[in-house]
Amino acid sequence: MEFTITNARLIDDQVVDVIVSSGVISEIGSGLNKGEKIDAEKNLLIPGLVDLHTHLREPGREDSETVATGSMAAAKGGFTAISAMANTFPVADTAGVVEQVYRLGQEAGFCDVFPIGAVTQGLAGKSLAELGAMANSKARVRIFSDDGKCVSDPLLMRRALEYVKTFNGIIAQHAQEPALTVDSQMNEGIVSSKLGLVGWPAVAEEAIIARDILLAEHVGSRLHICHLTTAGGVDLVRFAKSRGINVTAEVTPHHLLLTDDLVTNYDSVYKVNPPLRTERDVLALRKGLADGTIDIVGTDHAPHPTEDKDCEWQSAAFGMVGLETALSVVVKAMIETKMMTWADLVDRMSIAPAKIAGYLHHGQILKVGATANLTIIDSNANWIVDRNRLASKSKNTPFEGMQLPSRVVHTFLNGKQVLSNGEIVNGGAVE
Amino acid sequence: MNKHLLSINDLSAEEAFEILNTASELAKISDGPMKKLPTLRGRTVVNLFFEDSTRTRISFESAAKRLSADVINFSAKGSSVSKGESLKDTAQTLQAMGADAVVIRHGASGAAQRLADSGWISASVINAGDGTHEHPTQALLDAYTIRSKFPQFNQSFDGLRVAIVGDILHSRVARSNVLLLTKLGASVTLVAPPTLIPVGVADWKVKVSYDLDSVLKEVDVLMMLRVQSERMANSFFPSEREYSRGFGLDITRLNSLSKNAIVMHPGPMNRGLEISAESADSHKSVVLDQVSNGVLVRMAVLYQLLGGATLTGEVSA
What we know:
The structure holds 2 protein chains of 2 kinds. Chain A has helices at 67-76, 95-108, 131-136, 154-163, 190-195, 202-219, 231-242, 253-257, 279-291, 326-335, 342-357; strands spanning 2-9, 15-21, 24-29, 36-39, 44-47, 49-50, 79-84, 112-115, 143-144, 170-173, 186-187, 199-200, 223-225, 247-251, 296-297, 374-384, 403-413, 416-420, 423-424. Chain A is of the alpha/beta class. Chain A has a single domain, classed as Metal-dependent hydrolases (TIM Barrel). The termini of chain A are close together. The two termini of chain B are 24 Å apart. The radius of gyration of chain B is 19 Å and the shape is globular. In chain B, helix 1 packs across helix 5 (136-149), helix 1 crosses helix 12 (287-307) and helix 5 packs across helix 12 (287-307). In chain B, the strands form 2 sheets. A 5-stranded parallel β-sheet of chain B has the order 7-6-5-8-9. A 4-stranded parallel β-sheet of chain B has the order 2-1-3-4, sandwiched between helices. Chain B has helices spanning 13-31, 54-66, 85-96, 111-117, 136-149, 172-184, 212-216, 230-233, 240-247, 251-255, 277-280, 287-307, 311-316, and strands at 44-49, 70-75, 101-106, 124-130, 161-165, 187-191, 207-209, 221-224, 262-264. The chains are: A alpha/beta, B alpha/beta. The interface between A and B is medium-sized, with 25 and 31 residues.
C-alpha cells in the first residue's frame, strides 16, 4: 500500500509531501504524488505519540475499558504506541497474560499495545514475578511495574532492579510509601485540612523516590519514576541526574494543569492516585519537564465506570481518563505558557518515551526509512471536551467542558490510517 | 439563606446571628403552654443516619416534631455503604417518597455536599456531621450556648476568647466551630499535641498552642473535644494517661480558669480522659445546656430552610 501526505508542516515549519509505502516513509520532498493523496492542509506532522503509562483494564474489568476501546482512544489522542499497565484481573505477572494483552492489541489494530509486566506476583509486593519469562515472551516485555501499588520492600526493589539488567529491563516505580498513606484521600495540605480528608503527604512520594534513586545507583540499573507530582520529587530527580544515576521520570498531563483546590466540592472526578498537588508543585513539574529533568509525559489513563465515581469521595475509585486530552493539555500547560516548543513536546511525548522503552518503530525522527507511525495535528484549533464523545469506554475526565488547544486530525499506525479527520477508521490486524 | 446547610461557609455572620435570634424566639415559645408550632405541618423531614448517633438524631427528631413536621428516621447503617452506590440509591428512594429536608449523618467527609450537589434529590440537605469535615448545627448550638452565658456578646463575638482542646485533626465539631466562632468575631486558640493539629492549620484564622496550662487563664470559653482511644493505637499520643496529663481538664486546671469562664463539650464525654468527673459536673460546665439548646437551634435551622413565615404570626396560630 502506498499513499502521499501532502502539505505537511514539520516542526521546523517546512512544508513537505511525504510518501508512505509498505508502512515506511519512502520519500520526503515537494510536488510528490503517489497513490492515494491525503492533504494535511499545512497541519503539523509529527511522529506518533508514545505513552508508557496506560490502564486498559482487560482482562478483568472490561466494563471500564478494553484493549480495543483503549486503543481507539489512543488513536484519537494521536498515540501510536501505548503501554498497558499490569494491574488487571488476573494481574499481568505471567507470560500468558502479557501475550494475551499484546495479541488483543494487534487484533484491535489502532495502535501498538506493549504490555508492562508486574514486578511482584499478584502485585502483592512479596515475591518477584517471572520477569524473564515475560521478557522472553512474544510480548517482549521490558518495563515492569506494580503501578497502583508501590514496590515498598527495599530489598525486593533492589532485587528487581538487579534482575532486569539481564535483558536491559527497567523498573517503573509507583512511589508511594504505604505506611504514610493509609486511607489517604488527597494531597495533605491546606485543602485537605479544611475538607477533613485524610492527607497524602508529598514526603510519602519523595521518600520512595530518594530511596530508589540510591538503590539504582548502588546496583547500576535503570529506574523509571512514574507520575511525579511534587516539587521535592523534581529536585530529587535533578540531583540523581547530576550524579549520573540512570533514572528517568514521568509526569501526567493532569498534574501539569490541575491543583488540589479542585477537590473543594468533593467531586470525585478529581480523585486520583497520586493526588493533585498545589500550584507550587505544578509550576515545578512544568519547569522540570521543560528543562528535561522530567523525561516524558505519561497519561496514567485510568478508566472507571460511572458507578465507581458516582458516590461519596471516600468510596470513589482513584483515576482519570487521559489519552484523548493528553496532547492538548500539554500544549496548554507547556506551549501556551512558552515553556516548551513543539520540538520539546515531540521529544517528551514521542521520542524520549520510545527510547526509554525500546519501542524501535516509534518515536523516530521523520526521515526516509522511518516506520510510518505518524500523527497530524491542527495546532490552530480549539475544542471543548465533551465526555460523551470520548472513544474510551469510561467518561471520567476532569477536563469536561474545558476549552483546549490543538486537535489531532489524522493518525497513522505502521503506514495504515487509523484516524481520519478525528474519526476512527480501519481497525483490525495488519496483514 | 441557602437551600442547604452543609458547612458554616454557607452562612454569613448575619445569617448565623439570625438563626441564633430565631432560636431565642423559639425558646420563649418553648417556655409557654403551647410547645408545638404548626409551621412545618405536612412537610417531611428525613433523618438519614449512616452512622450511629442517638443524641444528634433525637435532637433533630424533636426539633422537627416541635415544628409539626412528619419525621422519618432512616438508619442506613448496616446496609452496604462501602460501595457508595447506596448513598445514591437511598437518596433517590427518599426523593421518590417526597422528602422536603434530609438531615444526613455520614462517616465520609463531603457526603452531605455530594447529596446536595448530585442532582439525585431536590430536598434541602442539612449536614448533621460528615466524617471529619463539619458539623454545622453543633457549632450553631455552641454559639447559642455561649451567647446565652455572655449577654455582652449578643451582637458580635468580638473580644470573646475561646480555646478548643483535643483531637482537632479528626474533629468535625472543631472545624465548624473554628469557622463559625471566627466569623462571628471571636479569637480562637487550638490546643492539642502537634500530632492532632492539621498540617494546613496555618491557613486558619486561629492561634495554636501545645500548652493547655498557658492558655487557661486567658479564655472565656474552654471547649473540650472527645478523644478516641483508637488514636492512641495509631501513635497520635503515647498513652491515655499522658494525654490526660497534658490536655485533660482536671480539677486543678478547672480552678485556674477565670471566674466567669465556661466549659463546653459536644459529648459524649470520656470522663477521666479529656475531662474529669468534677470538671464535667462543675457549675462552669454547660454541657447540658448544649444539649437542650441543640433542639432549639435545629428548630431554627429547619424553620429557616423550610419555613420562611415570620415567627410572630406563628405564635398566635
